[in-house]
């Protein structure tokens, strides 16, 4: 699965200390939603101006039409069921069971927090 992020697009990232994933989504230069990308992670921490986390290899790409794709399972050193004592599989299942709600909520929230019009001067500098 490939997706093209056009020149002039931007990324909005969400990190949570209490969730086993982080989220990035992309908007084009006109503010249109392009796609989302979840990383399955652990140990997310916020320290001063730094966010750190341990990436657990598995990712999920979600498209605007509601389709999603589980990525990088072939990169695991062992079966998903055994990797990290099964915690990655459980985290993935938790994410997938509510992915549409999570996306709906965060995309709507980001539209009110990160007004696209504020990004236009930065995008035009590019």
From TrEMBL:
It comes from the Bacteria. SUPFAM superfamilies: FomD-like (SSF159234). Residues 8-102 form the DUF402 domain. The lineage of its organism: Bacteria, Bacillati, Bacillota, Bacilli, Bacillales. This is DUF402 domain-containing protein. It holds the Pfam family DUF402. It comes from Neobacillus thermocopriae.
């Amino acid at each position: 699965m490939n997706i093209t992020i056009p020149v002039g697009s931007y990324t909005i990232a969400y990190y949570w200390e209490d969730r086993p994933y982080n989220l990035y989504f992309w908007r084009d230069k006109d503010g249109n939603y392009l796609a989302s990308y979840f990383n399955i992670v652990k140990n997310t921490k916020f320290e001063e101006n730094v966010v750190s986390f341990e990436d657990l290899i598995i990712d999920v790409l979600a498209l605007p039409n509601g389709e999603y794709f589980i990525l990088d399972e072939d990169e695991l050193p062992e079966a998903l069921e055994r990797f990290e004592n099964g915690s990655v599989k459980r985290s993935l299942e938790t994410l997938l069971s509510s992915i549409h709600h999570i996306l709906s909520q965060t995309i709507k929230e980001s539209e009110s927090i990160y007004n696209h019009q504020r990004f236009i001067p930065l995008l035009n500098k590019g």
